[in-house]
Design a protein that fits this description.
With about 120 residues, the protein is an alpha/beta fold. The chain is built from six helices and four strands, in the order H-E-H-E-H-E-H-H-E-H. The longest helix has 13 residues. It is globular and about 40 Å long. It starts with a helix and ends in a 7-residue tail after the last helix.
Length: about 120
């Protein structure tokens, strides 16, 4: 079996330091052939344009199939998330230590609710 077919796809993570460190300790940290990491640590000094650019790069990368993004960070780049309609990479919003998860803000959950009527949920 060739090495390229044996390797799986990656998770991309955009979030606060605690979120990224947790996933990195879990073993998700990788660099692609261009030495670009599959994670981005966002703090209060991170420019929204940098977050947007990283998210767009993750979406374009063919080695990333799932992108995890803290929901409070996702709010800053909501227009990019809402314009992404492809199933791969899947973009999942996750809570952070400082911000609880709010299902009403989750773009995937809002799309899923639009697929079902109230009758289907009874």
């Amino acid at each position: 079996m060739a090495l390229s077919s044996a390797r799986g796809k990656l998770l991309g993570v955009i979030g606060d330091e605690d979120t990224c460190v947790g996933f990195l300790l879990g073993g998700i940290g990788e660099l692609n052939k261009n030495r670009q990491p599959n994670f981005m640590v966002v703090d209060k000094n991170t420019a929204v344009s940098d977050i947007e650019e990283t998210l767009k790069n993750f979406i374009r990368r063919d080695d990333i199939d799932i992108i995890l993004i803290n929901q409070n960070v996702a709010e800053m780049v909501r227009h990019v998330l809402d314009s992404h309609t492809s199933p791969v990479p899947a973009i999942l919003e996750i809570p952070s230590k400082d911000s609880p998860y709010d299902p009403s803000k989750d773009s995937i959950l809002r799309r899923a609710k639009g697929m079902f009527s109230a009758e289907d949920l009874k």
